[in-house]
Amino acid sequence: MLHEWENIAVFFNNSEEGRLLLSFAAEAAEKFNAKLTAICIDRSSDSRPYNAYVIGAAARQEVLEKYRTEQQSEMDDTEKLFHEIVGQYKIEAKYRRIGKYFSIDEIESESFYCDLVILGSPETRILPEGLTAEQILLKIGIPTVIVPAKWHAKSGEKNIVIAWNASHVVRKAIVDALPIIMTADAVRFLVIDNPDLDAKSGKDIINYLNDKGIKADIQYVESHDLSIAETIIEHAEDLNASLVIMGAYSRSRFTEMFLGGVTKELFFNEVPVPLFISR
Q1: Alpha carbon 65 to chain centroid, angstroms
Q2: CA separation (Å) from 22 to 40, 90, 157?
Q3: 61 Cβ partners below 8 Å, 6+ apart?
Q4: Residue 15: which of 100, 74, 98, 93 has the closest Cα?
Q5: What are phi and psi of 182, to 5 degrees?
Q6: Which end of the chain is flanked by fewer CB atoms within 10 Å, N or C?
Q7: Of the candidates 180, 161, 185, 188, which has an alpha carbon nearest to the alpha carbon of residue 115?
Q8: Is the pTM of this model over 0.90?
Q9: 180: closest CA among 209, 200, 220, 204?
């Protein structure tokens, strides 16, 4: 039976990037007949606003009350944005607020009961304080899509690039991403700096996709003066790809931490194409 996404979660806020993320997630939920949970950070109860360092108890209280009023207004506008966007799609969706310092352990215990998490790029700062996309993926293990700031889907063919090295983590990423892979027009398996990779590698998956009417092929390339991550992005842009799929940490995380790696580079830098990352 084909793997399905039944529940999708998205972190968003009342900003242009937040609107983009919520729209991206709502469209995905409608397309894949999934329920959507839209999560925002509630700062209205924050007792330590950054501008509260004033002299005198009365002055501090005044600044605090003003800050809380502003944040409550922001939360109201965020909820209005939720209803505005969700109302454009035929989906079942719920709106949820979590605390500014909501911990990864709390997220793990709740698990959000979802099959996919949609996040913004690092500079959007939509997650709780100190929490990163990498932590969500590693701690909880939920497949994650990272959408770049100001991303707008291009019309025309839906092309997908898969960073392929025949590892088990990439194979699992493909299984996790099957719902969207099966909607693609073309899928490119990209092998970088590995000309000796077995030519039969991935053929079963490619043949399966071809049988389903999806144009799938494999390409061997060299990175030359670019990093592996830069090479993936370069070829994704050349193919006019709407998504890059990869497995996280096909080498050990210890090795990637000290030697650098594809996962690390893509997690912490802005990329022009949405990334689907699984482990």
Answers
A1: 35
A2: 11, 14, 23
A3: none
A4: 74
A5: -70, -10
A6: N
A7: 180
A8: no
A9: 209
Check the CA dihedral 59-61-66-70 and report its sign. positive
In the block, tokens 């966007």 appear at: 85
Cα 110 versus chain centre, distance: 19
- Residue 218's DSSP bridge partners are 189
Secondary structure of residue 126 in the 3-state scheme = coil
Compute φ and ψ for 216, nearest 5 degrees. Answer: -125, 140
Separation between Cα atoms, residue 47 and residue 96, nearest integer Å: 21
Q: Tell whether the torsion through CA atoms of 224, 225, 226 and 227 is positive or negative.
A: positive
Cβ neighbours for 75, distance < 8 A, ≥ 6 positions apart:
40, 42, 43, 44, 97
- Given the DSSP bridges, would you call strands 144-147 and 243-247 parallel, antiparallel or unpaired? unpaired
Unique residue bearing structure tokens 């003066």: 225
Where are any strands of DSSP class E within the chain?
7-11, 35-42, 93-99, 116-120, 144-147, 159-163, 186-192, 215-221, 243-247, 275-278
Q: Which residues of 1-27 are buried (b: 16+ CB within 10 A; e: fewer)?
A: eeeebebbbbbbbbbebbebbbbbbbe
Q: Tens digits of per-residue pLDDT, 65-104?
A: 776 777 778 889 999 999 999 999 999 999 998 877 666 6
